[in-house]
Amino acid sequence: MSFAGKIEPSLGTAPDCSFVIPFFNEHESLQILYREIVENCEALGNTFELVFVDDGSTDAGTEVVRRLAQADPRVSLLRFRRNFGKSAALSAGFGAAQGDVVFSMDADLQDNPSEIGNFLAALDLGADVVSGWKQVRNDPVDKTLPSKLFNGAVNKAFGLKLNDHNCGFKAYRRETLAELNLYGELHRFVPALLHARGFRIAQIPVEHRARRFGKSKFGAKRLVKGALDLLTVWLTTRYGARPLHLFGGTGLVASVLGGGILTYLSVLWALGMGPIGDRPLLLFGMLLVLAGGQLIGVGLLGELILARTIGEKDKYAIAEKSGAVADRELERRIAAASTLD
What we know:
Blueprint: E1 17-23, H1 27-44, E2 48-54, H2 61-71, E3 75-79, H3 86-96, E4 101-104, H4 116-124, E5 129-134, H5 141-158, E6 170-173, H6 190-196, E7 201-206, H7 221-239, H8 243-270, H9 280-309, H10 324-340
Parallel strand pairs: 1-2, 1-4, 2-3, 5-7
Antiparallel strand pairs: 4-6, 5-6
Helix pairs in contact: 1-2, 5-7, 8-9
C-alpha cells in the first residue's frame, strides 16, 4: 500500500491518516494547527482524522476543540480530568485512532504539517516508524544541550542511531502501536521500544518552527526523570524476558568472588597463619556470598513470575503469517465470528 499519494480506502470507514495531538494550555495554537493539517492532507488527497487529547488544560483549549468537532466530523476530543502527562495522552490518542498511518504531533505549532508528505514517502520506502529530526532547532541552549546528551545515551544503550528521539513529530504504521505500552515518561523512548520489538525505524529532517505562543514546559526535573526512565526501558527491553540473566549473572559473579575470598581465608586459618575472625576481608567475602545468593534468588523468582504471567507467544513479534498457518487462523476467526452471531 502506498501512503505518499492517494490511498485506497480502508475496510469500513477508517481514514488513511490519524493525527494524535496532545495539548496542555495551548488554546491559541489549536485552530491554526487544525487548519494547517487540513490544508496539507487535502492537498495530498488522503482521508484523515484529528484526535485532540486535552491533558488537563485549564485554559479555553477544550472549548476550541469542541467547536472544531461540531463543525468538522473528522475532529474528536479526548479530555482528561487532570494532567496525566504526555505518555498517557499519546496512549489514549493511539487507542482511539483508526487510521492506517498514525501521526503524533505537538500542539505548539513548532511541528510543520507541510512535512506530512515526507513522512508518508519515508513509510513507502519500507519503514515502520518515521521519526522527525529537528536539524535546526529554535530552542535555547539549556534545552538543546541536555537533548543532545539524552540522544547520545539512548543511542548507546539501544544501538539505534537517531539524532532526535525527543521530536514529537512521528508517523507509525498502525500495527506498531499494538506493541506499545506507554506510561510515565516513556513517550521519549518510543523509537527505542519499537526497535527492540524488531520494527524498522527511520528518521527524516523536519522544519522546527519558532514558538509562537506560551513557553516551553521543559524543566530540570525532566532530566532526572529521563535518566531513570532510560534505565527502566533498558532493563525491560533487554532483560524483561530473562530476568535471571541480569540478577543471576550478577549474583553468580558476586558468589564466586565471595567464595574465593572465604576459601583463601580458610586456607590461611588451616595453615595456622593467624586468626581470621577480625579481618575485614572475611566480612566482605561473607557479604558477597549472601548478596550473590539473594540476587540469584531474585532472578529465579522473576522467572517464576514471568512464566505465570506471559506466554511464549508474547516474547516475540511475528511480522507476517502466510500459507496454511494464515489460512487456519482465518478459519478460526470466521468460526468465532459466526458463533457470536
